[in-house]
Amino acid sequence: MKIGIAFPNTIPGASGRLQTEWAVRAEERGFSTVSATHRLRYPGHEPLPVLAAAAAVTSRIGLSTNILVAPLTTAEVLAKEAATVASLAEGRLVLGLGPGVRADDFEAADRDFGRRAQVFDGQLAELARLRGKEGAGILPGPVPPVLVGGLSANAVRRAARWADGWTAPGLEPELVAPTVRQVEEEWAAVGREGRPRLVALSRYWLGADVAEEAAGFVRDYFGVLGNEAESFVEKTPRSPGRIREQIAELAAAGFDEIVFHPTAARLSQVDRLADAVLS
């Protein structure tokens, strides 16, 4: 099981300098990947620029979006931007994509929230086309590998048909494990060779000194869910033992990698997670 870590790029107040320091420390401590997520109408840094900056200060660690809301832009713009970051990173980028779930992000981008699923299907088909000869004349390099996020039957179909694998949402292992089998079965059913790349997500915080800050962020970020936001606070792993248990559960489910999303914008969270799971 590979262990990755996400940037604090959607945590309000986290500076640009912290993003690059985070990437450097994550590489030093041996994480497999450093990942950036995406919200438009929420404070924070956009994922692809953060990953471009990370590419400039690292040389080995994998870089990924997990996830980027593809229908907020066009397939051609996304392909050009992703291929640019992949070129800067010398092939270390993986593009985790999803159709999005927040209507306010689409309103801010002047995009049609109701048509996002159809748009996303078209984008995946276009990205697949641009990964071939068609992209050679307009892109600075190859479109990076693509993972599709989501738990729906459509997400399973998209991952098997258009992508290199699937990335699960940050829910409890028992909620995402069944979809692993579905993705693998659909992958085989459509005649794909090999096996899909499977990535899981989890939130975390470590240390009493960040507990209030971390819980406040989780509560605010999931505030759109109303009272259910409090359950996200309660279910966030916050001890080395619980984090290791979650890794074991997700490994048993068949995942190749788990990316831990910090809920406190403190560089100490990189070291504490590394001490808990990489030592």
Quick description:
The protein is 46% helix and 16% strand.
Task: Describe the secondary-structure layout.
Blueprint: E1 2-6, H1 16-29, E2 33-36, H2 47-57, E3 62-69, H3 75-88, E4 93-98, H4 103-108, H5 116-130, E5 146-149, H6 153-162, E6 165-167, H7 173-189, E7 197-204, H8 211-221, H9 229-235, H10 240-253, E8 257-262, H11 268-277
Parallel strand pairs: 1-2, 1-8, 2-3, 3-4, 4-5, 5-6, 6-7, 7-8
Helix pairs in contact: 1-2, 2-3, 6-7, 7-10, 8-9
The tally of domains stands at 1
Global structural class: alpha/beta
Named CATH architecture:
Alpha-Beta Barrel
Radius of gyration: 18 Å
Write down the oligomeric state: single chain
Q: How much of the sequence is in beta strands? A: 15-25%
Can you count the beta strands?
8
Kindly report how far apart the N and C termini lie.
14 Å
Fill in the CATH topology.
TIM Barrel
* Coarse shape: globular
Task: Describe the 3D structure.
By secondary structure, this protein is of the alpha/beta class. The protein has one domain (2-212, 238-277): Alpha-Beta Barrel (TIM Barrel), CATH 3.20.20.30. It has eleven helices and eight strands. It has an eight-stranded parallel beta barrel with strand order 1-2-3-4-5-6-7-8, surrounded by seven helices. The two termini are 14 Å apart.
